[in-house]
Design a protein that fits this description.
By secondary structure, this protein is of the alpha/beta class. The chain has two domains: 215 residues, Aspartate Aminotransferase, domain 2 (3-Layer(aba) Sandwich), CATH 3.40.640; 85 residues, Aspartate Aminotransferase, domain 1, CATH 3.90.1150. The longest helix has 16 residues. It is globular and about 55 Å long.
Length: 312
């Protein structure tokens, strides 16, 4: 049997696979490893993956697609982390017909919700991207670190949302609030191959039932409560947007992530808020990012609003 024998891990894997309408799942330590294993499983050295230029896979995974899978990357632009279907069509290169000049584009990587923007893909966009990938002999992988946030924000059944993707990475921490862990979900053959790469990448863990138990807990208790994070994020965004020195695109603020444009340099705002006990991150020289999660209370939101007001 290619899966671990820990009954709690098996229960978690089976539970999430069923929730997403897939055949199997594999527990891994992190979302980065889940994405890395998916890329390795779907590609061969010399292939090319397609991803947004601000995606987590490209920016924050240590170039793993190159080191671990030997792949190049075709980067796509797009507002708020969203790739257009036309840009994906143009980005998929194939060696056939190129006189061996091009690599084989073999995997389209989508991030929903994108880590940049706070918005989500429409279901029509997700389906069309998968159709484009499959029509061009590519697999489609969804980096769904916050996929439950996307499902709650859109009101879409999560199995329907990911139906056409070959693999999906799901993070148990982030929006769901477990201490650690992610899962890669897909068909049985793909997950069987992924199990091999997990072992080679050092992600096989024997004494992991206690972590899986936390994962089962959040699936039972923390999915619907994600809406509270979204509500707090919206309230925060509206209040900060009303201040003279900041602006928030409320139209795209649909999840627990708020992007704030600052008239003053973003690093200065980060420092001023840190001095008041509020930790946020700088995205570029004029933008900061605030993420609302399980441990953020209404009092914390009010304190954050006050901190932004004081930082003007």
């Amino acid at each position: 049997m290619y899966l671990v024998t820990d009954p709690t891990v098996i229960d978690l894997q089976n539970r999430l696979a069923k929730m997403l309408g897939k055949e199997a799942a594999l527990f891994v330590p992190s979302g980065t490893m889940s994405n890395a294993i998916a890329i390795k499983t779907h590609t061969k050295p010399g292939d090319e993956i397609i991803a947004h230029k601000k995606s987590h896979i490209y920016l924050y995974e240590g170039g793993g697609y190159a080191m671990l899978s030997g792949c190049s990357v075709a980067l796509i632009d797009g507002e708020h982390g969203i790739m257009s279907t036309d840009s994906i069509k143009k980005a998929i290169r194939k060696v056939e017909g190129s006189h061996a000049h091009y690599p084989n584009g073999s995997l389209v990587c989508v991030e929903n919700p994108p880590m940049y923007g706070g918005t989500i893909y429409s279901q029509e966009e997700l389906d069309e991207i998968c159709d484009i990938a499959h029509a061009r002999n590519c697999k489609a992988h969804l980096d769904g670190a916050r996929i439950f946030n996307a499902a709650m924000a859109s009101g879409t059944d999560i199995a329907r949302m990911v139906k056409k993707f070959d693999t999906v990475s799901v993070c148990l921490s982030k929006g769901l609030g477990a201490p650690v862990g992610s899962l890669l979900v897909g068909d049985k053959d793909t997950i069987k191959e992924a199990h091999r790469w997990r072992k080679m990448f050092g992600g096989g863990m024997r004494q992991v039932g206690i972590l899986a138990a936390a994962g089962l807990y959040v699936l039972d208790n923390h999915i619907e409560r994600i809406k509270e994070d979204h509500s707090r994020a919206r309230y925060l965004a509206e209040n900060i947007n009303s201040m003279d020195n900041y602006s928030v695109n409320l139209e795209i603020t649909k999840t627990n992530i708020v992007f704030i444009k600052c008239n003053e340099g973003s690093d200065k705002i980060v420092k001023k808020l840190s001095d008041q006990g509020v930790d946020i991150s700088s995205i570029d020289e004029s933008t900061v990012r605030v993420v609302i999660h399980l441990h953020i209370t209404d009092e914390d939101i009010e304190n954050t609003i006050s901190a932004f007001a004081n930082a003007q």
